[in-house]
Amino acid sequence: MWLFGDKTIEKFCRFKKKLYLCSNSSSHASHQNSAPGEDFEFYYLTCKMKYTKQPLTVEQQISKLKNRKLIINNPSMAGNYLSNISYYRLRAYTYPFQDNEMLENDHKFLRNDISFEDIIDLYCFDRRLRALIFNALEKIEIALRTKIVYEYSVETSNSHWFLDRNLYFNTDKFDYIVEKMRDDVNRSEEDFIKHYQCKYSDPELPPAWMTLETLSLGNLSKLIANLDCKSATFRRISNAFGLPNSFILENWVYALSILRNHCAHHSRIGTGGFMLILNCLTIPFIRLSIEKRLKPSEIINYLPVYRVYNIF
User: Fold this and answer.
1) Cα-based distances in Å from 62 to 42, 65, 74, 87, 109
2) Which residue of 43, 119, 136, 142 shows the fewest CB atoms closer than 10 Å?
3) Maximum CA pair distance of the chain?
């Protein structure tokens, strides 16, 4: 018997080559009953060790892939690709086809008909998908900035409405949001920002139509998330994008900011690399038959940008 924090450990057990602790405690987020009537918990042990893997030459990388049963018909072509696309980046695209559970199998491919060309095709598909999404996101982002600036500026008759604490539902985060805006403005190299800073001293920040142009999409999503989404102005903006609920807009803008970052940093999109739960009461642009089969985290794969993209 061992003590593990405030838990009493009865025994160790092993499942799929992983080591677990078995405790007789009764409440934990990872609780699993070992059998009806028994009250045990299992804790997965991560055994840390020293990293000893050595860098591989391109030739060694090709040899390793062959040993793992990947078909490589043209080693010269594979070498050219691996010289420009790192082995580790391609690993993300080979991973779904490999045995990653049994360590003694050394990540061998589960099928014997997967070729290096298949992996490159999958990589190129993901790259083209990112380019298509990035193009759509540009239109959405510009339209969103324009609509927010216009609606709030006209409604409030105030060029600096974003400095009005009363427009935010969470006033505790007001100073944080303004500081984020200040950081983006001061970081900007745009001529119109330099012109404002040279000519005007009050207010410190430029008007909304300048300041919001400099905000990253991530900081824009923070601004949207902290504006009063129950206001008539916010509802008008949501309705302009075909969204019946203001809460959906702030959630989707956040999701799109994460998606944009994935695209900008060349991260995986179409092969399971991007997953984010969307809040939605209805999904007006997805057929009901499809919606019923989706898990919440899979909805993003249908890209709500298509709904907004259709306004152009």
Assistant:
1) 40, 5, 10, 9, 14
2) 142
3) 76
Token pair of 81, please? Answer: 């690709």
Residues in the chain, overall count: 312
3-state secondary structure of 283: coil
Neighbouring residues of 309: CB distance < 8 A, sequence distance ≥ 6: 136, 139, 140
Cα distance between residue 99 and residue 109, in whole Å: 6
Lateral strand order in the sheet of 18-23:
2-4, 7-15, 18-23, 41-44
Whole-number Cα distances in Å, 66 to 72, 84, 128, 206: 7, 19, 27, 59
Q: Considering Cα of 101, then 104, then 108, then 110, what sign does the dihedral take? A: negative
- Residue pLDDT, tens place only, 210-258: 999 999 988 999 999 899 888 999 999 988 888 877 778 888 888 888 8
Report pLDDT digits (tens) over 10-24: 444 444 444 444 444
Which residue stretches of 69-173 are H helix? 75-84, 87-94, 116-156
> For residue 70, which of 90, 55, 45, 53 has the smallest C-alpha distance?
90
CB atoms within 10 A of CB 71: 14
pTM flag (> 0.85): no
The CA-atom distances, in angstroms, between 65 and each of 23, 49, 70, 78 are: 41, 25, 6, 10
The rounded radius of gyration (Å) of the Cα atoms in the chain is 26
Instruction: Compute the distance between CA of residue 247 and CA of residue 250 in angstroms, rounded to an integer.
Output: 6
